[in-house]
Amino acid sequence: MTEAxxxxxxxxxxxxxxxxxxFVAVTxxxxxxxxxxxxxxxxxxxxGLAAGSIYVYLxxxxxxxxxxxxxxxxxxxxxxxxxxxxxxxxxxxxxxAVMHAALGVIDRYREAFAVLNHELRYLEQRPEYRGRxxxxxxxxxxxxxxxxxxxxxxxxxxxxxxxxxVEALHMLCSGLxxxxxxxxxxxxxxxxxxxxxxxxxxxxxxxxxxxxxPDSPS
Length: 218
Description:
Layout: H1 3-6, H2 8-30, H3 40-46, H4 61-87, H5 91-108, H6 110-124, H7 127-154, H8 162-178, H9 188-203
Helix pairs in contact: 2-3, 2-4, 4-5, 4-6, 4-7, 5-7, 5-8, 5-9, 6-8, 7-8, 8-9
């Protein structure tokens, strides 16, 4: 029996490493061709794996879509502790930092993100994937929703329906990949400046003056 089979921690680490290999391979292939043109065999070989071994980690091609989502969300959630520490409880700074981090992930994997965005409706319509997809995306949605709710409670972020705003902010970030030829020559930071201005102008209120006398007239 191998050490990986004897030690679940090593086995889990190996599985994570292999899935990362597969994800990176998929992003390279999707820069060259469509998801439906790519084959599982081609993805395995691009990842440096034996053609059949990919099925040890994924049950089929549709699982690759979940892997793309899981990998991208994972990169974003890895950045969240630093984002929260840097913004020291300011929900406006935090929401902008989360969006900027999400935009960075989208920019790194534009083609893969565009494929995922296109195929999400297909996955959501399949009962065997709907619940899993919801769980994969939950940390990303929470990273947007939490500072929005805190900001609303503090009176510094204004909105009506939380779910609508979370989706709207996601769509603003998504535009970098979904803009296709229109944004082919637009770099990430140029795009970021425009959408950040939209968010500030639409959702943010001036910071409250915490030193003001609460009994003085406004």
